[in-house]
DNA sequence: CGGCCTTTTTACATCGATGTACATTCGCTG
DNA sequence: CAGCGAATGTACATCGATGTAAAAAGGCCG
């Protein structure tokens, strides 16, 4: 038997279609009796609203798109989990996309291609530039995650990456380390998480009266374990001396731990290692990983909240949009074995 | 200005709405000239189809739901990546959901709640029972992943878990290990990935003429690192002796590695460790992890293919559905340091 | 150049739910 | 118990795209 429609429920309950709709949508002025009759009819027929019809009529889907570089980078998976949880609480469904850190994909997300269902987009860009945002044609409500592009184009949520990197670097300096390699760093001005963290690294060094050496900023192709391992191998092969690594994310750090192990270097005795993101793997690695833990739950919660505001705003029509909202989420440095050794680790 | 509709394009191009629709959908009988004029109008107005309208009319959304226990378990993230990639190739969009391994959530997915947009569902259940499937009301095309429930209710794709576990166990036996703990095992008959792997473990032991000891099957609450670590700690505390661990997934194995390290046990000298899934972290752990590598790409590809068949079938109407298709994806044992030590590792 | 067949284009109904505007019913007050 | 305002319920149009069926245009033949 075909799936029942609102019409069938109406007939069965002996009321109009609109009344059924009113019951479904909890419209106030429906008598208790009518409500009950309709509910029973719905139950008996096993009726469920057809979302396509509703969406066409309402112009809203209740779907938000979450666009991240990769799902199999644990940080993004954990972030996605958080966003899904918060979105569900607001009766939103999340459509997850990945861009492979590809600019084309990110642009497509901006214009809502394939996210076309979505009422709004939460985007964690890696390759996007400020120009891309300036020229954006789409008008889809948008929230950016991470310190990605110059501010001023859309709401965005991030931790204070400059400060976080500075603290992490200061921690290493406090342990007496002096030759710190910034793995994944980018020594160029401008926006971007890598740039912000590199800047924090630089400030910490200079704040301690140490010289900032651009050669100690070691770029990587991607922020994954293989690239962290490769960076260490390359740096050693190139004759670089270092007594600490500031890895710009945990994946790089975990890859680096492995490479250091293979080269017979002890962590933290020979080389101390810090990461960013506080992924679960860093809590079980050998040694466990000191890292900057962003308050992912706060990021997720604020992102959803901001997006909901924008969506509501877009629905109002007319009124000029509020200026972009820039939010900073908390972070903290979690000290583990990779900097202070096993005896001081806290589990 | 409001987003243009097909009507606006039609007016601008001086043709009917249907002709515009025909151009959009590459209908054959449209003259080249008309096609060009319409394309230009579309371009000029920046028109894009409204999916809600299309869905209502077509009754298909082009969305498939992928339902997994957790996104932040790397295996599922990697699997999701694969499925998204294959689905995109078929012009499908993937809506990812997670169930927290909760039966209620899995049931909801079966009936399409919140996946209501979807034309079909790919579900990786953990808690579902055969009865749940038997009583299922929904008629949404469905593909199951993993050796989850008794066969016969829906298409499903999995590796041969019994065989895989048998091979992994045989590998340990071949190294001379005799007291092998099955971490995450479930010593009860019936369907389920854990059950299948436990059975393979048992068969390998018995095939080698060794006694199967139910006490060596160590259940866990969840298949995550903390539980792997806890299992080892508990087993040691309980005075269990073992010279190898067959961990039923890599997360458990990685947690176990950490716990063994903390208890001063060397891997593989004192205890050899095997996992399942071949997640990236196991390629960079210290020591690297021997594991059963499922051909995830094959799983993803077959799952999408099966689902597409079912969706097409559902569209035909009338005809009785084809019997459930049971597919087996390839796997292989990847031997690394956690069983054979550093000197024999292959990087 | 009329007749017939094919190609191209169109008008209209339709998918399912809900907003609008109006009709009806109900409960009270005086 | 007439009359009035509030509470309920309904008919109909509408959201945007596309399938149906049929009209219009074009091509070819004798």
TrEMBL record, chains A, B:
The keyword Glycoprotein does not apply. InterPro entries: HTH_LacI, LacI/GalR-like_sensor, Lambda_DNA-bd_dom_sf, Peripla_BP_I. Residues 4-58 form the HTH lacI-type domain. The keyword Transmembrane does not apply. One of its GO terms (molecular function) is DNA binding. Residues 314-347 are annotated as: Disordered. PROSITE patterns: HTH_LACI_1, HTH_LACI_2. Keywords: DNA-binding, Transcription, Transcription regulation. It comes from the Bacteria. SMART domains: HTH_LACI. Residues 337-347 have a biased composition (Polar residues). This is LacI family DNA-binding transcriptional regulator.
């Amino acid at each position: 038997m075909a799936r029942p429609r609102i019409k069938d429920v109406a007939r069965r309950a002996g009321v109009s279609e609109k009344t059924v709709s009113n019951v479904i949508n909890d419209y106030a002025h429906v008598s208790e009796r009518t409500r009950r009759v309709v509910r029973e009819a719905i139950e008996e027929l096993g009726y469920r609203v057809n979302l396509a019809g509703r969406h066409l009529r309402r112009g809203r889907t209740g779907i938000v798109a979450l666009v991240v570089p990769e799902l199999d980078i644990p940080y993004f998976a954990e972030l996605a989990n958080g966003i899904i949880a918060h979105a569900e609480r607001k009766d939103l469904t999340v459509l997850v996309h990945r861009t492979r850190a590809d600019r084309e994909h990110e642009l497509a997300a901006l214009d809502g291609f394939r996210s076309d269902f979505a009422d709004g987009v939460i985007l964690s860009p890696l390759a996007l530039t400020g120009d891309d945002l300036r020229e954006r044609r789409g008008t889809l409500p948008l929230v950016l995650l991470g310190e990605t592009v110059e501010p001023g184009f859309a709401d965005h949520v991030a931790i204070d990456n400059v400060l976080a990197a500075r603290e992490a670097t200061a921690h290493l300096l406090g342990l007496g380390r002096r030759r710190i390699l910034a793995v994944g760093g980018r020594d160029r001005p401008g926006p971007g998480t890598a740039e912000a963290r590199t800047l924090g690294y630089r400030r910490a060094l200079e704040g301690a009266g140490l010289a900032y050496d651009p050669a100690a900023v070691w770029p990587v192709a991607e922020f994954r374990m293989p690239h962290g391992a490769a960076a260490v191998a390359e740096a050693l092969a190139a004759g670089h001396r270092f007594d600490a690594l500031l890895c710009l994310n945990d994946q790089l750090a975990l890859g680096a731990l492995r490479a250091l192990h293979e080269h017979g270097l002890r962590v933290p005795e020979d080389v101390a290692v810090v990461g960013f993101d506080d992924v679960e793997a860093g809590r079980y690695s050998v040694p466990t990983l000191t890292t900057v833990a962003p308050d992912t739950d706060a990021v997720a919660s604020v992102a959803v909240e901001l997006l909901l505001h924008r969506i509501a705003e877009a629905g109002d029509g007319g009124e000029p949009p509020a200026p972009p909202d820039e939010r900073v989420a908390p972070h903290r440095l979690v000290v583990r074995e990779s900097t202070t050794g096993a005896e001081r680790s806290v589990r």
